[in-house]
Prior knowledge:
With 270 residues, this protein is α/β, with parallel strands linked by helices. It has a single domain (11-269), classed as Vaccinia Virus protein VP39 (Rossmann fold, 3-Layer(aba) Sandwich), CATH 3.40.50.150. The chain has helices at residues 19-45, 59-62, 85-92, 104-113, 150-160, 218-227, 253-256, and strands spanning 11-14, 75-79, 96-101, 119-121, 134-140, 161-172, 200-203, 209-213, 230-236, 262-269. The relative contact order is 0.18. Residues 77-169 form the Methyltransferase type domain. Residues 1-21 are annotated as: Disordered. Keywords: Methyltransferase, Transferase.
Amino acid sequence: MIQEPEAFEPEATRRRADAAESARANRGWWDRNADEYQIEHGTFLGDDRFVWGPEGLDEVEAELLGPPAELKGRAVLEIGAGAAQCARWLAAQGARPVALDLSHRQLQHALRIGGSFPLVCADAAALPFADGSFDLACSAYGALPFVADPRLVLREVRRVLRPGGRFVFSVTHPIRWAFPDEPGPEGLTVSASYFDRTPYVEQDETGRAVYVEHHRTLGDRVRDIAASGFRLVDLVEPEWPAWNTSEWGGWSPLRGALIPGTAIFVCERD
Length: 270
C-alpha cells in the first residue's frame, strides 16, 4: 500500500517579517483558509451582522460609526471585509459600502452570499481610491493585525476619508500577546513579554512564512493613530457578555471575564 505523505504542520516562531513577506504570506493564508473560516465562524458572524469581535459586540448597539439612522447615503469603506458581513449590514441601513480584502477567496464568499455593493481585492496599504472618497471607514479584525507598518494603512485610510471622516477598527487586545493563545486556564498565566514586538510567524519547512501577525502595544496603537493624522476619540474594550458561551480560538467566557480580548479604536480625521 502506498502511504500518502503527512500534511506538513507549519512551525510557529517569533521572528522579523517585513511588509512584503507579511502581505504575501497572509494573502496566501486567507485564500487557503477562507472556506474553513467561513464554515467555522459563519454562523456567529451571520450574513448581514456587524460584529466587532469574538465578544459579540454588535454595531446595532455600539453605534461606533454613528446612529444607524444617520448612515443612510454615507460612503463607507470596509477594510479586511472577508465575506463582507459588515458591508451587507451597512447597505441594509442605506449606506453605500465598498468591501475591500486582500484575499480573493474571501471575496468569493462575499459573492456567494450576495449584495449589490462593490467588492475590491487590494492591499490596505495601497488603497485604489481617490482622495476624499469616503465618509466613514471600518475594519473589524481586518488588515491592521497583519501588516508590518500599520501607519501605511492608517495614512491611506486618512487619505481616502473626507475631512471629519471617522475610522473605527478593532484588533486583538494588545495585552493578549503576553498570554498563551488558549481558551482554558492555561491561557491565564503570563508567558511572554508584553513589550516584545517580534512578529508571530508560521513558516513552512523551508523557513518561508505562511502566516504573519504583528504585535503593537496599546501605546504603539495610540502613537500610530496620532502620527497618521487622526484624533483618537474613544477606545472601547468590550466586556464578555453572559449570553456568549462560545469559544473562538483563544477567546472564551473564562478568559473574557478576566482579561480584555478586543480593543476598538474610534478615530476621526480633522
